[in-house]
Amino acid sequence: MHSLLIAFFALLITVNGLNITKYGSAAQRAVTDQARNITVWVYFLVVPVYGEYLESISIYSLIQLTGFIILLLGVLLYNEIIVASFCCLSDHLMFKKKLVNLDAEYASKKNRQSLN
């Protein structure tokens, strides 16, 4: 019975992810996937496990929290939800914007030529 329940929830998560990607974007799916991980972690901190209401905060809990924060920041930076302007990242973003603008100009020029 437990395996059927796990299979059902895995199917539900996959269908949910596909719908997010279909109607939203891959960046939104990545963020919701990370939010799911953090939600599960916080749930097991709060819900009583073996009679204890809060997990005893240890060095391993702090390492987990640090890892989740680094992972989430990495996903947000990669999907350009957070734009970092330190180091050489701002140059990369400016170059990317110029490429997008050049592509848009080329497409509009090509459309004007096809109309003539």
Characteristic key phrases:
116 residues
Please provide a written account of the structure:
The protein has helices at 2-23, 26-46, 59-78, 89-115. The chain is mostly helical. It has 2 domains: 2-82, no CATH class; 85-116. α1 (2-23) runs antiparallel to α2 (26-46) and α2 (26-46) runs antiparallel to α3. The model has no long low-confidence stretch (mean pLDDT 75).
Helix percentage: over 70%
Number of domains: 2
Mean pLDDT: 75
User: Strand pairing plus helix content: what structural class?
Assistant: mainly alpha
Please outline the major beta sheet. Answer: none
Evaluate the radius of gyration: 22 Å
Distance between the termini: 67 Å
Shape: elongated
Number of helices: 4
| Order of helix and strand elements from N to C terminus | HHHH
- Which strand-content bin applies to the residues? under 5%
Strands, total number? 0
Uncertain spans? none
In short:
78% of the residues lie in helices and 0% in strands.
Architecture blueprint of SSEs:
Blueprint lengths: L1 H22 L2 H21 L12 H20 L10 H27 L1
Helix pairs in contact: 1-2, 2-3
